[in-house]
Amino acid sequence: MGLFKSKLPKMGRTLRPKEKDMLKSPLIIFVMGGPGCGKGTQCRNMATKYGFCHVGLGQLLRQEAQRGTRRGQKIREIMLQGLLVPTGIILDMINDNMLSCPESRGFLIDGFPRELIQAKEFERIVGRAPDVVMVFDCSMETMVRRALCRGQVEHRADDCEPAIRQRLETHYTLCEPVFTFYQQKNLLRNILAEEAPENIFAKCCSVIDSLQ
Q: For the chain, which terminus, N or C, has the lower number of CB atoms within 10 Å?
């Protein structure tokens, strides 16, 4: 995987004590999986059922990339190459979104963390670990097929086949240490994502219900 050199911040901003207090009690659920694994759809379903706030990292990045700012242009260049946006930007976006929903009972952080440093930086900045980490397990060919269909429907520039395969390669390379990190904390829950959507949703709900 190539490295992208940019001036975007590598570290997230430090939260104030009051902000950390706001994030102590809500459930925080990370939802991981490659592009096209179905995690976005299931996060929207879970958010509706449980009244959680769905923080879709990919959507946040795409919205930022469409803006005409220098930061937006840098993010767009990185995403079109299938590479990772710097950790500082990721964490600031996620934390700002959570803090903007202070009344939420829980947060579904969709597409995070994408590498080990993000997992560790989240805990350092927020002052706590997530309650659970769901991992959507899906074959590469299934994810490529789904992502290509999504790209056609949603007209997403980053859902062309070369970028998808690069993102998947990046995902598999960088996520293994993340899985190990959360497995050691007994927070990892695997969701087989090749089944019918309603069966996948039932498994997701079972994980959430075990936390209530």
A: C
